[in-house]
UniProtKB/TrEMBL annotation:
CDD domains per UniProt: ABC_DR_subfamily_A (cd03230)
Similarity comment: family membership: Belongs to the ABC transporter superfamily.
Residue stretches in coiled coil: none
InterPro entries to which the protein is assigned, alphabetical: AAA+_ATPase, ABC_transporter-like_ATP-bd, ABC_transporter_ATP-binding, P-loop_NTPase
GO molecular function terms listed in the Swiss-Prot or TrEMBL record: ATP binding; ATP hydrolysis activity
ABC transporter domain ranges (all copies): 5-236
Keywords of the record: ATP-binding, Nodulation, Nucleotide-binding, Transport
Superkingdom: Bacteria
Name of the featured protein: ABC transporter ATP-binding protein
Amino acid sequence: MERALIIEKLTKAYDKEPVLTELDLEVPTGTIFGLIGPNGAGKSTLIGILTGLLDYNQGSIVINGLSYNSSNEIEIKKDVASVLQPPLLFENFTSHEFVTYVCEMYSIPAHGLNKKIESLFDYFEITEFMHVKTKQLSSGSRKKLAFCAAILTEPKLLFLDEPFESVDVISIGRMKNVIRRLKQKGTTIFITSHILEVVENLCDDIAILHKGKILAYLDSATRKELEKNSNLSEIFEQYVESGGRSDDMLSWL
Ligand SMILES: Nc1ncnc2c1ncn2[C@@H]1O[C@H](COP(=O)(O)OP(=O)(O)OP(=O)(O)O)[C@@H](O)[C@H]1O
């Protein structure tokens, strides 16, 4: 099977404090992959590295068949888009200026672009903010705008870090529709989320990241077996130990 992403022995420390330790991970091309893990597990750090925002100490990364290094960074990035947490927007641009600027950076042809922008903004109910500066948008609208910009760049690999956080339930449903459509077109989607019901229902393979390592990789066969008896939240709890904590600790409450 083809792999959109191959990570080997990836190690990252912040000021000597290890966050990712010899992490190995492979993501099959054209699938929706879910990365879940407790707070502080290293999910955003991993996405930061994979999108070129953060450096790393050791290991190797292959994206869409290209080995990641400074000489081919630009070639890799033209096929990769992301929605980060918090989303990165140009604060003094209007929503329309922002998405058109992002499309220019990705050399997306201008012909027909406005129609696509209008339909996406309409679908996500942000048309009224078309000519409003991004710094004035609510957190949910910022997320939706960053998502629209990422979609418009027609990526082969799309990283979504907590894409559903702050987003209303109707818009989450629409984001899920778009993500499924992208998969049908062959895009690989890499999602992190704490909303496990959405991950369970949307993703193909799922990995659990804990303390900087992949604790479990649940492919479709493994999921099928485990999900006979438990939902994803229960499976997550079984893998990620509670460290003996229970409600009894809060008996004073
Ligand atoms: N810039 C930074 N400097 C130092 N430590 C950092 C920095 N960014 C993150 N960390 C630490 O790295 C660890 C992993 O953080 P990260 O944000 O990647 O986790 P996460 O899995 O995305 O967490 P969450 O689910 O809470 O968003 C945490 O211990 C965090 O405190």
